[in-house]
Amino acid sequence: MLAAAQRLRRSSDFAAAVRGGRRAGRGALVVHLTVPTATGSDNTAPKPARDNAEADSPPVSRAGFVVSKAVGPAVVRNRVRRRLRQLTRERLVDLPTGSTVVVRALPAAADATYQRLGTDLDAALVAARSGRGRRSR
After folding, report:
1. CA distance linking residue 91 with residue 79, whole number of Å
2. Is there a contact between 108 and 117 (Cβ–Cβ < 8 Å)?
3. Fewer CB within 10 Å, N- or C-terminus of the chain?
4. Quick check: 99 and 3 in contact, CB under 8 A?
């Protein structure tokens, strides 16, 4: 389970990560990754939902999940979300501190195995981190 400080909750956090981050789709997933810049003033990662309690703590990598009704009924969506949450929790430590990840499940995720989701997530994170061949917005 992701710690409370590692979860995206507000729609503004999701929107900032999707609009400001790099996108990479692989298999049954699309990953939006926002990595903070080297200088502190240009940090594009969205701020945590609770700024007052976490103001003194160092920034942590955070993750959010989007699993729409196109994936399937509630039981299937929750199973996909649980799998993605566990897979992402294991990979957050490899991301730069302060990164924000939004993982969006495509309808093919309903039939994907845990291993397949892990492979797709790894490939999407590598592609999003490299940022090769993308033009600026």
Report:
1. 19
2. no
3. C
4. no
pLDDT of res. 96: 87
Asked whether the predicted pLDDT for residue 137 surpasses 60, the reply is no
Q: How confident is the model at residue 42 (pLDDT cuts 50, 70, 90)?
A: very low
* pLDDT score recorded for residue 100: 92
Report the candidate in 26, 28, 27, 5 with the shortest Cα–Cα distance to residue 100.
5
Query: Per the structure block, which two tokens stand in for 80?
Result: 């996909």
For the chain, counts of helices (H) and of strands (E)? 3, 4
pLDDT surpasses 60 at 72: yes
Q: Are 22 and 131 in contact (CB under 8 A)?
A: yes
Q: How many residues does the chain have?
A: 137
Is the whole model's pTM more than 0.85, yes or no?
Answer: no
Amino acid making up residue 124? A
Cα–Cα distances (Å) from 31 to 47, 79, 95, 117, in that order, read 19, 18, 13, 12
